[in-house]
Every structure is written in C-alpha cells, then in structure tokens.
Amino acid sequence: MIEKNMSQLLPVDVAIYVEGTYPFQIGGVSSAIHGIIEGLPDVRFGIVHLAWTTETTGEMQYPRPGNLAWIKIIRLGKFINAFADLVGEAYPVAKVHHSHTCGLAGLAATFAKDQHPGSRMILSEHSLYVRDVLQALEKAGCSHKAGQDLIAANEVPPIGAGQGTLNEMKEAVLATGRQVYENADTMTYLYSSIRTEALQYGADMTRSMIIPNSVDSQRFESVSQKNKTAHGAWQLAVIGRVVPVKGIIEAIECARKLADRGFDFELNIIGPENEVPCYAAFCREKVAHFGLENRVIFKPSMSPEKALEGIDLLLLTSQSEAMPLVVLEAMAASVPVVAHDVGNVGDLLGSNSRSETTSAPAGIIAPSGANQRNPTPAELAGVVIDVLGNEGSYRAMRAAGPQRVKQFFDRTEASKAWKALYSA
Questions:
Q1: Residues 209 and 226 in one domain
Q2: Which of 20, 47, 112, 136 could tie 150 with a disulfide, CB 3.0–4.6 Å?
C-alpha cells in the first residue's frame, strides 16, 4: 500500500530511499532495486520515494513483491529548498536505511539514520550522482527542467531558473554529496573504477565495497532455447527508455546504413516514450524521413524475457552507462551484444579483464575512429554485419553469454552479498 503518513508505517528490516525511480519508473536503477527485494524474500522492505512531479508516481511498473510492506511518497518542490523540507520529515523505523543515489534520497536516508539511533545507512551508487548532475548543469546552463534526461542512471532534480546561480547550484550538489558520503556506514559500487572515481567527491574507500548488478539466469533459460538464427530478416533490438542518453537516434541512423547496404533486418525499439515526448517524436520523424517505417518498429515496455524473445542481436548505443542490466539480460538469453564503449560494458561482455574465462566474448565493443568517442553509424553498421555474418563467432558469443552470467553475475550470489551487508 502507498502510505501518506509516516506514523502509520510499520517497522521494516530495510527502508530503501529512491529519487524518481522505483517502482513508478522503468529503468536500470529500478530493475536493480526490484531484483534486490525479490532476491531476499525473508527481508521486510519499505520504499521511501522522493518525487519531483506527480507524473512520476502513477501506476507501479513492477509486480509488487510480497515482502514489500509499504511505499511512502515524499513530494519535493525546488531543489534549493529540499534540504529544509527533508530535515523536517519524520522517517520510518528500519534497521537499515538504504539509499540508491547520493542525491536527496541519500540525504533523506542520512536524516533517517540520525532520527533512529542504532540504525545503519547504506549508499549504493549506480553511477556517480555528483559528477553526473554537475555535468548536466554545465550542459544545460542551469536551465534543467524536470522530465529532461541528460545523463544516465540517476534521476536529475529539476534545477532551473529561480533556484540560484550556476555556481550556487554546483555548491549545493557538492555539499549534498559530501554530507551523504560522510554519513554512509557502507557504500556499494558496481565496479572498481567507478569507486575510485568517487574519491574526488568525498567517498571513503575503506567504507566501500563492490556488489555488481545481477540477473536471475534461470529466468532467461527458456528465452535462450527459443532464440534461433535460421530465419529471414535478422531481428535487432534497442531496449530502454526513448531518451537522448540512450542513443536512440544513433541506432536509427545505424539502421539507415544497414538498409543502404541491403542488409535484411528489423530494428525493434522497445521502451517507454513518455519521459521526453519531444525526443520520442523526433525519433519517429527520423524513421519516417529515412523511409524505414517497415524496418524500425517502436514497441512499448515489456518484460525482459518477452523483449528478448526472438532477438538475434542487442544494440547498445547509449552515450553513457555504468553497468547496464539490459546487457546482462541479453547475455543470459544468449543474445550477443554490439555496444558503444561505455561504463564497464566491455568487462561484462568478456572483452576485457574476465575474457580469459570463456572461449569467446558475449559481444563486441564497436571500435571508433581516431578522435571519436563512439563509432559513426556506418562503422556501427559494419560491426553488426560482421558479427552476424560470421556464423562460428556468432554462435560462440551466444554460448558465452549465459556462461558468463552464471559465473559472475547470477542473482543468487548477489543476494548473498546483500543479505550479509544488511545483517552486518
């Protein structure tokens, strides 16, 4: 149930604090939280959801786990006033207050820990909130508005006109980060290099640990068995929110180059279009402009198993990622991946440090030319054709995906790590 009054909330083992994500918005952070709750059925959870707009708190986008006791929504106004709003809240009783961002959700978890002596506070950074928001402020010139998506993984608060100068906003973000870092008993990161990067913003390496994203590998076994390669048009997919940071336009431009080369394919763009409607409309206009209406198909959000069924290749054209769950899900479903070099995707696929553990990687990072961050659409199209045109290599990638997930990223092991951390 969704509660309006903190005093009505029953004590829980773990209160999870989120900012504009779970359970009302689909995405990697939300899916990771849902996986933690599902993986620990004996742990009683509550959700404290910080919301900037009423649009972010509609219908639940995930099946409600039986061990989720309640959902509490705290509505916020201006970012500049959020500290005062949050410090005056009454927070639920929990043994552990677990924030999934170093932003205002982290601040709320900090205040909750202070209100309830003896409780602990855990911070999980899926990306680096302070770095990402500072970059967004620079890019937007302090004109960022709710609903825009300029960065990956973390929800950006609506920081805009009337809330201070650019320098004042930067200092507010930095101060929030420092306070959250100082008060977290434990900080978790997805991989080592992002943990090291967090040091410059105030993180303490001695209080941090690595817990990677994970998936339930058994959940995708039937999908893997259904996927096939002997058919007509190759089925490609981009799975994610139709927002700028996910590089949907780049995928559409790649599709145009594939069509120009006479490649037989369909590109399935699977994900919600409501977060940045003007961008979604622009993507559809691009498809029409290129004459790709019969090649590029927009589909609504669906379960990962359904989305990956019958897909031959996943395209990851994101401008920024950390440790994308969609790549792990594709690997578990024996769907090879062609990706931009973002986050630690190369490590997930096995093209970096862990590649020696399998006979082949589960996909490939598309190389880019000199002085380019990402490959051009033509270069990306060439990689797609090469991967799908080499039957032996392609089959080896399909076989490597489930093997790597079971060895390194299976939910059973991750759940053990979360259980131990919550019980410490």
A1: no
A2: 136
Rounded to whole angstroms, how far apart are CA atoms 324 and 238?
Answer: 12
Quick count: other Cβ atoms within 10 Å of Cβ 356? 7
Is pTM beyond 0.85 here? yes
Phi, psi at 99, each rounded to 5°: -95, 140
Q: Beta strand 120-125 with 337-339: parallel, antiparallel or unpaired?
A: unpaired
Instruction: Based on the fold, state whether residues 107 and 136 are members of the same structural domain.
Output: yes
Over the chain (424 residues), the average pLDDT of each successive run of 10 is 66 95 90 96 96 73 95 85 87 97 94 97 94 79 44 50 73 92 97 94 94 94 74 92 93 98 97 90 97 97 94 95 95 97 93 58 88 88 96 94 94 96 95
Give exposure, 213-238, as e/b (b: 16+ Cβ within 10 Å).
bbbbbeebeebbeebeeeeeebbbbb
Answer for the pair 224, 329: CB distance below 8 angstroms, yes or no: no
User: Token digits for 305?
Assistant: 């198993």
Q: What are the pLDDT digits (tens) for 320-349? A: 899 999 999 999 999 999 999 999 999 999
Residues 183 and 240 in one domain: no
State the pLDDT at residue 180: 96
246 and 384: one domain?
yes
Tell me the CA end-to-end span of the chain in Å, nearest whole number: 29
Residue 180 host element (H or E)? helix 166-183
- Quickly list DSSP for 293-356: TTTEEEE----HHHHHTT--EEEE--S--SS-HHHHHHHHTT--EEE-S-TTHHHHHTSSTTGG
How many structural domains is the chain composed of?
Answer: 2
| Domain with 120 in it | 2-214+411-423
